[in-house]
Amino acid sequence: MDDIYVTRPHLPPLEELLPSLRKIWERRVLTNGGPLHQELEAALARHLDVEHVVLFNNATIALMAALRALDIRGEVITTPFSFVATSHALLWNGLTPVFVDIDPATLNLDPAKVEAAITPRTTALLPVHCYGHPCDVDALEAIARRRGLRVLYDAAHAFGVRCHCGSVLRHGDLSVLSFHATKVFNTFEGGAVICPDAGMRRKVEQLKNFGHEGEANVVATGLNGKMSEFNAAVGLAQLGHMADAIARRRAIDARYRGLLGDVPGLRCLETAGEATANYAYFPILVGEGYPLTRDELLVRMKAERVHPRRYFHPLISEFPMYRGLPSAAPGLLPVATRAAREVLCLPIYPDLTMEQVDRIAELILRPLRPA
Q1: d(CA 249, CA 246)
Q2: Are strands 150-154 and 162-163 parallel, antiparallel or unpaired?
Q3: pTM of the predicted model as reported, rounded to 2 decimal places
Q4: Neighbour tally for 49: CB within 10 Å
Q5: Domain 242-368 has what CATH class?
Q6: Contact at 8 Å (CB) between 162 and 177?
Q7: Alpha helix locations (H) across 187-264?
Q8: Distance in angstroms between the alpha carbons of the first and the last residue of the chain
Q9: Which helix (H) or strand (E) segment is 98 a member of?
Q10: How far apart are CA 128 and CA 135, in angstroms?
Q11: Tens of pLDDT along 254-301?
Q12: Pairing relation of β-strands 266-268 and 282-286?
């Protein structure tokens, strides 16, 4: 039997990529916003139903540039339950993360806890659409409007997700996507900032290209965040396969729920009311009532060559550069602390077969059976 990992990168047929590679070789334009880069930005804007897409070499650099574009200072309220890049982007900008607990149903930032964490130094919110499930955007943005705060969404997981009013990427001042190899849509490495208007797009584009305005003028302390033509070519080849890939993920999600939905002590995380989901992850929470702890189950599954992941364990607030912050105290983050102790993301990707899904489910059901 082959090992089954938590994900496997989706790739388009190689022959579909070759015409774009030939164009790259003919043009000798490799980066700096070449023709394929521009084509992908336009195609993504249409596909995602957003106004402006600014491509980046990865989502972390995109997030760093987005924070700078919004001129955010001081303290930023965010979640401890995410990949560490969310908070690292704050530190790189000289900002102070303020961690707030998460909602037990969605594992997204809890709006009820946000208001109490606002201080005179708070300038922004940085929520995460965790696992691609939308945050309570209406509640968070109502708080932000009332308190004069910016809202920047880490939407790394939320490619193609639609909430009650359309694309979830239309919410907030800016949203950041990841096109890393493990994501629903990938360009091997890549990311994007979703901008609501041409003025903000221009500012973000300057920041991703060293702060250049024209050939000889530099107007901002920018980064080098440009996506190459090769990565853009991969993205263009991927786009036509997204509907099939997400349909396959949907079927796997349904199979897991049918097999595991009634297991004592185990909770399959529900969606957060999205009108269109992308089924990026399949997290379960292993709690009281199940015969094993989450980590005991993980060890047993790995022994059978199945490799789920503890997304997200440990919490960001537990890493050395964050644990000294007042907001990082575990007693202030009981829901996130428990989620980090219980969560296990099961394998899900378009190439996963239903036989493999059944094998994974069987490993989880086995401890419930009499010896």
Answers
A1: 5
A2: unpaired
A3: 0.97
A4: 12
A5: alpha beta
A6: no
A7: 198-208, 229-239, 242-260
A8: 24
A9: strand 96-99
A10: 7
A11: 999 999 999 999 999 998 889 999 999 999 999 999 999 999 999 999
A12: antiparallel
Determine how β-strand 282-286 pairs with β-strand 343-346: antiparallel
What DSSP line would sit under 274-312, residue for residue?
Answer: -SB-----EEEEE-TTSSS-HHHHHHHHHHTTEE-B-TT
| Radius of gyration of the chain, Cα coordinates, nearest whole angstrom | 21
Evaluate whether 14-101+110-239 and 242-368 have a shared fold: no
Tell me the CATH number for domain 14-101+110-239.
3.40.640.10
- DSSP string spanning 120-165? TTEEEEE-B-GGGPPP-HHHHHHHHHHHT-EEEEE-TT-TT-EETT
Q: Which two tokens stand for residue 131?
A: 């696992």
Chain segment 72-96, per-residue pLDDT in tens: 999 999 999 999 999 999 999 999 9
* Residue extents of the structural domains in the chain: 14-101+110-239, 242-368
Q: 57 is written with which tokens? A: 């070499």
CA–CA gap between residue 177 and residue 164 (Å, rounded)? 20
